[in-house]
Amino acid sequence: MPTLLLGAVLFACDVPAGSTSTGGRETPIRPEARATSLARDPASGLAFVAVRGLPPEGQRTLKLIRAGGPFPYRKDGVTFGNREGVLPQRPRGGYREYTVPTPGEGNRGARRIVCAALNPADRECYYTADHYATFRRIRP
What we know:
It comes from Deinococcus hopiensis KR-140. Keywords: Hydrolase, Nuclease. By secondary structure, the protein is of the alpha+beta class. The protein has a domain at 55-84 and 93-139: Nuclear Transport Factor 2, Chain: A (Roll). The chain is 20% helix and 21% strand. The chain contains three helices and eight strands. The protein has helices spanning 2-13, 34-37, 56-67; strands at 19-22, 25-28, 48-49, 78-79, 95-99, 112-116, 125-128, 136-138. The strands form two sheets. Strands 3-8-7-6-5-4 form a six-stranded mixed sheet. It has a two-stranded antiparallel ribbon with strand order 1-2. A hairpin with a 2-residue loop joins strand 1 and strand 2. The chain is globular.
């Protein structure tokens, strides 16, 4: 019965099962991330994504963040202002952003990981595939 209800909701929203809507485009969710992405982070209200649900480039970027670098892009580690107000509020300088390379892009592309500027071993991080329009909390 829950599957039928989910199907009805997705049909009504015109979003195919197994994807998320991002401003008219659909971004497939990796199969291994589906179960995790249904849970929500209580602090932010955002859906979770497992590390293994990130694209391979995102997994590598997360490892670099946790190791403290070195980072391939000059702007990696700069302050993220959270002007969109999607992430939980923090004092100015409370978030840092990092590039997740996009194969085939000649520039930094739209994918980022944004982390709270805390102890690197205990980071609160978020992934966006669409340049801050939507975020998912990376499950620690």
